[in-house]
Amino acid sequence: MTDSRKTSQLCPNCRRLISRDEPVCPYCGIRTPGVWWKNHAFLRLFHDQDLFLTGLSGLNIALFVLSLLMNPRGMSMGMNPFGFLSP
User: How far, in Å, CA of 35 to CA of 50, rounded?
Assistant: First the structure.
């Protein structure tokens, strides 16, 4: 019987077939290409860390504005510093 486990994978950077146990891709030099999160399709969209952080900050601001629009009483200008602009 043969072992059904996969021992090869595509490098998440150069997309060439390499062994899952490689510490460094022999073609492009990326470190630890066998970890799961480097080969995840969603996370491959965010190669640039600045793009990811900008998108995450924009999403946070958009959800905050949406929560203020859903509850307009949250925009009250009281003397309580903890209640200022809290939805």
Answer: 22
Q: Are residues 27 and 13 in the same domain?
A: yes
Q: What is the pLDDT of residues 32-50, one digit of tens each?
A: 776 766 556 666 666 666 7
Mark whether 39 and 15 lie in a shared domain: yes
φ/ψ of residue 31, rounded to 5: -80, 145
Angle at 63 between CA 60 and CA 67, to 5 degrees: 140
Pair 43, 37: CB distance under 8 Å: yes
* CA 13 – CA 3 distance, rounded (Å): 27
Domain count, the chain: 2
Whether 22 and 51 share a structural domain: no
What is this structure's pTM?
0.42
57 and 38 within one domain: no
CA distance 24 to 58: 34
